[in-house]
Input
Amino acid sequence: MTLKYQSQTYQTDLHPMSIATGDFNRDSIIDLAITNFESHTVSVLLGNRNGTFQIQQILSTGNGSGPQKVVTTDFDNDSFLDLAVTLSIEKRIVIYFGTSETNLFHSPPYNFSYYAYRYPPDLIEVSDLNLDGFVDLIVTQNANMTNIPKKLICFLNDGSGCQFKIANYFQYYFEDTENIIDIVIGDFNKDGIGNSDPYTGLTRTGMTNEYPSKMIKGRFNDDQSDDVAVISFRLNTLQIQFGFGQGNFFTQIYLTDIYPTSMAVINFNKDGIDDLAILHCNGTVSVFLALKIGILDRHYLSFSNYTTTNGKCAQSLKVIDLNQDGRDDVVFVDPEMNVIRLLLGSPCDE
Output
């Protein structure tokens, strides 16, 4: 398999930042939702079966709101996907509830009662943390002050999608010299309860050897344990933390191309072991192939098509089969040109 950049791009609003993928209109085709920070909107692009997308539909988040992160899940169990969006300027979270195949989302959105109004929500993830059948919210708060502890807060969903309560046993405070850079959720202590352990990546001020910028979960060997991959934008490195139970890990470090910004698990060679697709600031996508014995092929594959020029890095890489051909495809945002870019998985002989 190889990845081929598509010449066609798809317009968003101003300064796209984050992508969520899902079947929003229930036609069994992948659609996209993108936050646009400078225009204070969310773009929804409905997918076509051949891996192309329709013209964006716009959801307003309100003037001066600053939408940043977006995740999708079915909060109210009505079989329609919903969108949760962090508004960094207004310091709140909104939820757009899915309504139908034609209207897509209810607007204006539901105003989620995010209680820490002094500081904006930063990262957002979803998982059924207490295993009650309802999807919960995990939110981080990084105050830009050295004397304020950083927080990871879990909000438990009562099933309506409109009522969440803070779980005291799922609330964590971190040192004021740390920033939470990402969250992954898995069964890291191998107690058989999957997707219930939040794992945070921290960056510490004053440290010279650790500058993590993105973290994901995967299985990069054949031991059936959840592993963690971490990239460093400043050090141009990929760190694989192989899990072996009780929350313990051993680490391997690899060099990447310059300025990695995002990554995702990709099934590149279909050997049952997760591989890694890494996006770089200039739009290059690198693929690291994982081996069953627990090492990555250092001769990684690189796919490049264009170069950014004004300092706005390509970001928010997602891997999913867009054209239903059984191969993984890649999508990411280009905030310089305000577009979505695609790489489609193709046979090597094409």
